[in-house]
Amino acid sequence: MLDATLFCVYKKAIPSSVLPAKTYWAEKKNVVVTGGGVAGSLVAKSLQNEANVYLIDQKEYFEITWASLRSMVEPEFAERSVISHSEYLPHAKIVTSAAVNITDTDVFTAQGSRIRYDYLVVATGHTQNSARTKTEKISQYQIEYEKIKSAKSILIVRGGPTGVELAAEIVVDFPDKKVTLVHRGSRVLEFIGESASGKTLNWLTSNKVEVILGQSVDLNSSSDGVYRTSGGETIVADCHFICIGKSVGSSWLKETILKDSLDTQGRLMVDSNLRVKGHNNIFGIGDITDIPELKQGYLAQSHAKIAAKNIALLTKGAKDEKLAIYKPATKALAIVSLGRKKAVAQFPCFSIAGRVPGMIKSGDLFVGNTRKGLGLQPNV
């Protein structure tokens, strides 16, 4: 049942005299989606015409996260990659709050709302510390842009995909900047093959990025733009960016009915239909799951499509044997952009770097295709 006095949605608040949601839409099931990221946004969009969909998210927008680094050197790019939930969810209810508890029948939010569900999709991915509104998010990118623009030298900590792509964006758009990348591992992009990693290192060094491997940076001891590495090296930089992964966004589940469905790493254990193990009407999708594969955006989108299909089938009375099965992507497939025109790609049997993979990703960073997938104009 809906706690109407506290439950606010896009466009207008539901009045306190409201009846339970099922009174309005008796022929439809209630589907609650927690998390408005890559996976959650797509499953909500896919089901909004077939069910009473409620999207619970701490922020008012969906961001195409793999395009975020471009927005740091071109804030206007975020006008397309940061999308208000209301733009693609005209028939869903948007609850701007964090989900804090789950029972067998309801989801509770930090604002005190209670939303009853027939089917629940948990898609809270990684921990968030984002701006609440689209305007605030774009303003953050403007601040980062000014920070980069005014700096003569920049330190980037960690050489995973985020660190590498940020270094590339900066040296391509600001070739006069001195960029230093420090990574504690033995090679950059350790999640892909050594050949692709080597090609990436060659591109970085050829574009005058100083790469220091096998060392870390003690940021707490930095003073007046002077940083020291674990190997005793000194780096002078006007600013720095820390490019490390975020923790799994599952801590809020530890006091819910799903507390026993988390593995030792805090990931949600799901079956081949993407249902949380032990719960026939609760699905887990995206980076929060324990699926043995790389955590990548296009795979999260695949999860969303399977979950949406299965929920639609279940609402029509389908038996379990009719449900779609998700097959994990066991072979590495990744493209890391290197500025606006080049990239390095890891395919199952080989890797390639340069303009060919750059033509696939680096120009628009899949923003147009992602917008089209949400039913929006690609270039608006």
UniProtKB/TrEMBL annotation:
InterPro entries reported for this sequence: FAD/NAD-bd_sf, FAD/NAD-binding_dom
One GO cellular component term: cytoplasm
Keywords assigned: FAD, Flavoprotein, Oxidoreductase
Domain of life: Eukaryota
Domain FAD/NAD(P)-binding: 30-294
Pfam families: Pyr_redox_2
GO molecular-function terms, A-Z: electron-transferring-flavoprotein dehydrogenase activity; flavin adenine dinucleotide binding
Protein family: Belongs to the FAD-dependent oxidoreductase family.
Protein's job: Putative FAD-dependent oxidoreductase.
Protein name as annotated: FAD/NAD(P)-binding domain-containing protein
UniProt source species: Capsicum baccatum (Peruvian pepper)
